[in-house]
Amino acid sequence: xxxxxxxxxxxxxxxxxxxxxxxxxxxxxxxxxxxxxxxxxxxxxxxxxxxxxxxxxxxxxxxxxxxxxxxxxxxxxxxxxxxxxxxxxxxxxxxxxxxxxxxxxxxxxxxxxxxxxxxxxxxxxxxxxxx
Length: 131
What we know:
Layout: E1 12-18, E2 22-23, E3 26-27, E4 39-43, H1 49-54, E5 62-68, H2 69-73, E6 79-82, E7 103-107, H3 112-118, E8 123-126
Antiparallel strand pairs: 1-4, 1-5, 2-3, 4-7, 5-8, 6-7
């Protein structure tokens, strides 16, 4: 069992971006949405960009970006929390989840303004279709 650990402000997280949210070579604001209890990201300390992309159902449809935790937290009421997926964990449909020590969530309301701010605070790690 992996413990929850603090993610420091100067640490980064990785996030998968589906190809439909990449517009003109940039990540559009609608990519920054919650799925379940928050916006899923991977703690950089426990993952690589390639491992993050390869956890997707269809990795070839995903790019990977990074964001600095402190820059995320600087946006009104957003929290970055480590939330590892343990062995034998289930999703809301009762389906088994793959263990993921790096899993974390960005928690807080993703208003249009918040999504727009997030869309300005990222860097490419793996572009669509490449390394």
